[in-house]
Design brief:
Layout: H1 7-10, H2 14-19, H3 22-30, H4 34-40, H5 44-48, H6 53-66, H7 68-90, H8 93-96, H9 103-117, H10 119-128, H11 131-149, H12 155-169, H13 172-183, H14 189-196, H15 201-213, H16 221-243, H17 256-265, H18 280-287, H19 290-310, H20 316-319
């Protein structure tokens, strides 16, 4: 008679099971993700009680109302902090910082140099560190850089803070993707991703810039703009740290039953929840998949014009 696998056994990679090596299996047990560890210590009454559709719906609503707003607002905050430099230029930033020639264009571009340079290191850190805590730390870094931008007086200062800000924001989309996979089923993910990738930042940037730009203060309008947005980002870093869990199994405001339902909902995704082990066979499989390269080309084609327009966009009406 076939026996049902426990949660610990079920989490073992299939290739390790096929090899049947005791040494390899023991290594896999050490490398299982936090979800398997949680399930292994879960009370039998919680695990064995069938999940009702009503319970599943309530948990989904709780996820949508607690997790989605955090990653949604995080992407808006990041986008606003990234492109607000174009609005700051209208309020005298270029004059006050003595930008000449192509220096303003370089201030806009150097953000992406930092972004690209830190993309691979940040992927490694996401794998090794608690996802939400690491993310809140990067939000804190780019918030500090926003505040520091208000104190710059030349091209070198602007370039330095923009480069570091790009490094900090490099983890934004990888983290949001990982969190989406952790919490929602495959068929639920597209609409949630559409939410946090939506371009609401353009609305907020224009409104905030207009309000601050017309304020009568001793401080230059563009400096005040960076300070206000930087302080808001600092507060948001605290919110992310306090309320975004590293995984469903580590969510403080969910009961063990709700955590169990979260994990059962996404088990068919076959993606796991959080593992600290880099599996090189998965990387090789990804690099050999033509769809990976098609998505890569699509992303390049989409973001080259996007990156080129976002910095000078606010200047267009001024030239008309």
């Amino acid at each position: 008679m076939a026996t049902e696998k426990g949660p610990l056994e079920a989490s073992l990679p299939k290739e390790d099971e096929a090899r049947g090596s005791a040494e390899e299996i023991s290594g896999a047990v050490r490398d299982i993700d936090v979800a398997a560890r949680f399930l292994a210590t879960l009370d039998d009454d919680v695990r064995d009680t069938p999940i009702t559709p009503e319970e599943a719906r309530k948990v989904l609503w709780k996820i949508d109302l607690s997790i989605l707003p955090i990653i949604w607002i995080s992407t808006i905050v990041a986008a606003v902090d990234k492109v607000v430099i174009s609005n700051a230029a209208i309020y005298g930033m270029k004059t006050d910082t003595h930008l000449v020639g192509n220096e303003y264009a370089w201030v806009g571009s150097i953000f992406y140099f930092g972004f690209l340079l830190f993309e691979y290191p940040t992927s490694f850190l996401i794998q090794r560190l608690p996802v939400a805590k690491f993310f809140s730390a990067t939000v804190l870094v780019w918030a500090i850089m926003m505040c520091c931008t208000a104190a710059t007086h030349n091209f070198a200062g602007l370039a330095a803070v923009r480069f570091i800000m790009g490094m900090a924001e490099a983890c934004l989309f990888p983290v949001c993707n990982i969190i989406t996979v952790m919490w929602w089923k495959n068929q639920e993910q597209p609409i949630r991703m559409a939410c946090w990738m939506s371009q609401f930042s353009s609305i907020f940037t224009g409104i905030v810039s207009y309000g601050i730009g017309n304020a009568n203060t001793p401080l230059a309008s563009w400096r005040l703009l960076f300070l206000v947005l930087g302080c808001f980002s600092l507060l948001w870093a605290v919110v992310v740290f306090l309320f975004l869990p590293d995984s469903p199994a580590q969510c403080r405001y969910m009961t063990d039953r709700e955590k169990f339902i979260c994990l059962q909902r996404i088990k068919d995704n076959n993606t796991g929840v959080e593992s600290k082990e880099i599996k090189w066979y998965q990387i090789r499989e990804c690099l050999c998949d033509p769809k990976t390269w098609l998505l890569f080309i699509f992303s390049i084609a989409q973001n080259i014009p996007n990156g080129g327009v976002c910095v000078p966009e606010s200047h267009v009406p001024a030239y008309l």
